[in-house]
Design a protein that fits this description.
Blueprint (H helix, E strand, L loop, with lengths): L27 H4 L4 E2 L3 H7 L5 E7 L24 E7 L1 E10 H8 L4 H36 L5 E3 L15 H9 L8 E6 L1 H9 L4 E3 L8 E4 L2 E5 L5 E2 L6 E8 L3 E6 L4 E2 L2 E2 L2 E6 L8 E14 L2 E3 L12 H4 L5 E3 L8 E6 L2
Parallel strand pairs: 1-12, 5-19, 6-9
Antiparallel strand pairs: 2-3, 4-16, 6-11, 7-8, 8-9, 10-11, 11-19, 12-16, 13-14, 14-15, 15-16, 17-18
């Protein structure tokens, strides 16, 4: 267990108010792209119940074929049938806590609760970052399953492990077209392309980026080939012997269902979703404060089942478990999955 100690703070010889340092990551994957939508009502009602997995039965599409032709014979028409199957989903209960000693606050700014107030100010960003990481790991797992079990029909790659990649190995019009083509005649469903900043810089150097201001955002955002561009240094990068492989995600609106519930049951120290605890005895009486946050989070790629094959704890899957191919299985036809990947050099 760790908490803020004297060694973690700067003792100002001349008092200057502390400045807030925030981790410079992109939250756009979960906040601006529109790829996360609320689950449908039937699923939302199950989220408050017991158990760790959900079953979502659905009707499969009608089999395609040629129509019958009526005649005046005694032959009876043979009807086709419609079949159903189940898409399995999982819920995650997550927690995070932070602690700070009272003495650390006194020494750093002269205010005992200053570290805790700053922790509280940054908790929202931390949880958004956590959601983004779980989103990336979920997509990584879904695509790993696709590569292992569905011939990689959602993945396009121009990557080559060479020391001097050419333009053909980098992101460009043809490479992105190949990625959208994995969805066949549903290629127009993709609305967002997510990439590492190094990949984004390739497009920037080629002057291929345009900027628009969607009505729901207060600032201009980059677009490429009609898709909103999200660039983040948390996107997957796989080291090679000579050059790294950068994975881009292409996503359609509503590609994943997502909801967060902050439990509100009262406790002695607040509510279940946000508690404060104080231990007055530690630090030889200096004391320590702890803030604990909890949430129930649901995130699921539409049309893919969660297999629960590798999961150590009942309450949630870890990021590493989300990224495992063995935990996912595609159920819908490829064209109905609004997810694709593009592997490139940078």
């Amino acid at each position: 267990m760790s908490y803020t100690l004297l060694a973690d703070v700067i003792e100002p010889s001349v008092f200057i108010p502390y400045q807030n340092e925030r981790i410079p990551y992109k939250l756009a994957l979960s906040q601006e792209s529109g790829v996360l939508v609320a689950p449908i009502e039937a699923i939302a009602k199950q989220l408050g119940g017991g158990g760790r997995t959900l079953d979502a039965p659905y009707w499969e599409d009608l089999a395609r074929g040629e129509a019958d032709i009526p005649d005046d014979t005694a032959t009876e028409i043979t009807p086709d049938k419609i079949t159903s199957t189940v898409e399995k989903m999982t819920k995650h209960t997550l927690a995070k806590s932070w602690s700070a000693s009272t003495v650390a606050g006194w020494v750093s700014t002269g205010v005992a609760d200053d570290p805790m107030r700053n922790i509280a100010d940054k908790m929202g960003d931390w949880w958004h970052y956590n959601t983004e990481q779980r989103l990336i790991k979920t997509l990584t797992g879904v695509l790993a399953d696709n590569g292992a079990n569905d011939s990689g029909d959602m993945i396009a790659s121009v990557y080559d492990d060479i020391a001097s990649p050419t333009a053909a190995n980098k992101i460009g019009v043809q490479a992105v077209n190949e990625a959208t083509l994995t969805a066949g005649d549903r290629m127009g469903d993709f609305r967002v392309i997510c990439m590492h900043s190094h990949v984004y810089n390739t497009l920037r150097n080629d002057e291929q980026i345009s900027f628009r201001r969607p009505s729901e955002t207060p600032h201009e955002v980059p677009y490429y080939q009609g898709m909103m561009v999200i660039f983040s240094d948390t996107m997957p990068v796989t080291a090679g012997s000579n050059s790294s492989k950068y994975t881009c995600f292409l996503l359609g609106e509503g590609a994943l269902s997502h909801s967060v519930d902050i439990p509100s049951e009262p406790t002695q120290n607040g509510v279940m979703g946000l508690e404060m605890d104080r231990n007055s005895l530690v630090g030889n009486g200096g004391g320590k404060d702890t803030i604990i946050t909890r949430r129930h989070e649901f995130m699921h790629p539409r049309g893919v089942s969660w297999l629960d094959a590798n999961r150590a704890k009942k309450m949630a899957a870890t990021n590493a478990e989300l990224a495992l191919a063995t935990n996912w299985d595609r159920k819908y036809d490829r064209k109905n999955i609004r997810i694709a990947a593009l592997e490139v050099n940078a």
